Amino acid sequence: MYWIKRLGLLDWEVRFKHGDKEGETKQFYANICTVQEPRFCVLRLCKTWEEGENSAELNTITLKKYALHEISHQLIAPLKCHATMRYTVEIEMDEAEHAIIQRLVNAFFEDGA
What we know:
Elements: H1 2-6, E1 13-19, E2 30-35, E3 40-46, H2 60-84, H3 90-108
Parallel strand pairs: 1-3
Antiparallel strand pairs: 2-3
């Protein structure tokens, strides 16, 4: 929830799932599935982390990095949505781009200045 609040993504419905690495997501420690309209996403975090050369060390910093990575997909989802639409006009891309930029400004300067 920290990054969702920090990046001002409170206009999204977010569901969290915690589970083992299985099915389609078994190669990931975390992933996110977003739906632009309505603004909805499911953030999945793995409960178990494998030991071995390809595994990440499980600690607070690692978890925060994974969370920020996945929430960044949510942040740019509107821009990606417009980019993949067949009939997007430039103004829609500009608006989506500026909305992302403003969320970043607000995240780093609490007053938005």
